[in-house]
Amino acid sequence: LPADIISTVEFNHTGELLATGDKGGRVVIFQREQESKNQPHRRGEYNVYSTFQSHEPEFDYLKSLEIEEKINKIRWLPQQNAAYFLLSTNGFSQEMQKHCKLPGGIFTDTGFFSAGEVPVLRPMDLMVEATPRRVFANAHTYHINSISVNSDYETYMSADDLRINLWNFEITNQSFNIVDIKPANMEELTEVITAAEFHPHHCNTFVYSSSKGTIRLCDMRTAALCDRHAKFFEEPEDPSNRSFFSEIISSISDVKFSHSGRYIMTRDYLTVKVWDLNMENRPIETYQVHDYLRSKLCSLYENDCIFDKFECVWNGSDSVIMTGSYNNFFRMFDRNTKRDVTLEASRESSKPRAILKPRKVCVGGKRRKDEISVDSLDFSKKILHTAWHPSENIIAVAATNNLYIFQDKVN
Prior knowledge:
Blueprint: E1 6-11, E2 17-22, E3 26-32, E4 46-53, E5 58-60, E6 65-67, E7 73-76, E8 84-89, E9 94-102, E10 105-107, E11 121-123, E12 127-136, E13 144-149, E14 155-160, E15 163-168, E16 176-180, E17 193-198, E18 205-210, E19 215-219, E20 231-233, H1 246-250, E21 254-257, E22 263-267, E23 271-276, E24 285-288, H2 297-302, E25 312-314, E26 320-324, E27 329-334, E28 340-344, E29 360-362, E30 371-373, E31 385-388, E32 394-399, E33 402-407
Parallel strand pairs: 29-30
Antiparallel strand pairs: 1-2, 2-3, 3-4, 5-6, 7-8, 8-9, 9-12, 10-11, 13-14, 14-15, 15-16, 17-18, 18-19, 19-20, 21-22, 22-23, 23-24, 25-26, 26-27, 27-28, 31-32, 32-33
């Protein structure tokens, strides 16, 4: 069902919980099983912990616009007590959800007790309750593409095509506009905001990317409205590569700070780039995700795949990066050894303890037995959303309406 298509995946700060959002506005939370001496092989398995409806479809009567319930992003808040908080957004509003475990026991409902009667505590299964604690609405005219929690844990930002707003978690009816790129005349519009993220350690710094392949770093200490960026990252285009599709494929679909805060990673249609915050004129690393598609851009334009928005993630130590591709392939690049691998999320590889075999795509010429031809790739199977456990080699990969969780070999 289209409503079941996974639209975002996110581990919490400890990696014990994993949240997915889908096109039907539903959030599913998975919890990692604790190790047990009886079943050591089950270590690391994630089981469904809670499922709830976060967003409902709405209709904006002023604009005659249907607002779909699809969840674009989920961000966890650091855990302060026994409850878990997460922030989810659809195209136009954010909701903050609270999860709490209810006690594993309940008083019998016998109504009234006589003087000598003591209420009995009957054991029951643990219950998990999800309640919407805040709804932050009516601040975006355009489609929300990003939410990012600030390192001060008091504020967060939401970005749409033309504006970025700053919110306080305690105030739902008011936000501060910190970036506005909307021209006075919409016919003069040349670019849109595609993604935005706060620096992991400096609460005054954030970056946002654009459809023109540029990244701007802004400092909120300089002015209330960050229309003037502090740094501007852009790679000059190679004139020999110029084509009709150049502008479309240079649009950045995701931007992520490294955990250290030293680097920014961006994903465009064909590549992943790593930028050093101290060097604006070119990336320090460029990784080709699926360069064999360069000859297929015409048909990818015709079937709208060229507009797919792939995300990218760092591992916990910033040494490996991962991003998705077509045919349910996903790519990993080791920044130290410069080795890369293509893996496939499939039913065969999802059997317990199955080992993922590297895949290779062959372009023209003679095809080897273990290779797949570029002409037989399935473009309807695509991995747009992935997540990496904050400290371990456990990854979550969303392939349409299936979630795959892989981990390093356990001895």
